[in-house]
């Protein structure tokens, strides 16, 4: 790869990384006990994660605007919550 291509990629990398929104949280049952293995995802996308042993989850998405966050686990009713993923302003880069 030429140095010009590498420089261009390095300049565009911060904008590409900034386009991601981090979603994280913790899933518990009615008794406030953590639920491991829950599938959390943005409906209609491939973005999501499964909860850890302590019920925590974290993932990034490029989806923006009003989205439907879903949580499902066998033996439990699927939970869906509307969320608004706002676009964040990207830092400017000068050459």
CATH topology of the domain at 23-85: Immunoglobulin-like
| Uncertain residue ranges | 91-95
Shape: globular
What quaternary form is this?
single chain
Q: Whole-Å distance between the termini? A: 20 Å
- Classified by CATH, the class of the domain at 23-85 is Mainly Beta
How large is the share of residues in beta strands? Answer: 35-45%
Strand order of the largest sheet: 3-2-5-6
Helicity level, as a percent range?
10-25%
Order of helices and strands: HEEEEEE
What's the number of extended β-strand segments?
A: 6
Mean pLDDT: 80
Counting helices, strands and paired strands, the structural category is alpha+beta
CATH architecture of the domain at 23-85: Sandwich
Provide a descriptive summary of the structure in words.
The protein has one helix spanning 3-18; strands at 21-26, 39-42, 48-50, 56-61, 65-72, 79-85. The protein is of the alpha+beta class. The chain has a domain at 23-85: Carboxypeptidase-like, regulatory domain (Immunoglobulin-like, Sandwich), CATH 2.60.40. A hairpin with a 5-residue loop joins strand 2 and strand 3. It is globular, with a radius of gyration of 18 Å. It starts with a helix and ends in a 10-residue tail after the last strand.
């Amino acid at each position: 790869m030429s140095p010009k291509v590498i420089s261009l990629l390095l300049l565009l990398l911060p904008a590409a990384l900034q386009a991601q929104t981090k979603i994280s949280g913790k899933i518990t049952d009615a008794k406030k006990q953590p639920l491991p293995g829950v599938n959390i995802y943005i409906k209609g996308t491939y973005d999501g994660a499964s909860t850890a042993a302590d019920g925590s989850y974290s993932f990034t998405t490029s989806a923006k605007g009003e989205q439907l966050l879903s949580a499902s686990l066998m033996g439990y009713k699927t939970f869906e919550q509307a969320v608004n993923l706002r676009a964040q302003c990207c830092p400017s880069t000068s050459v």
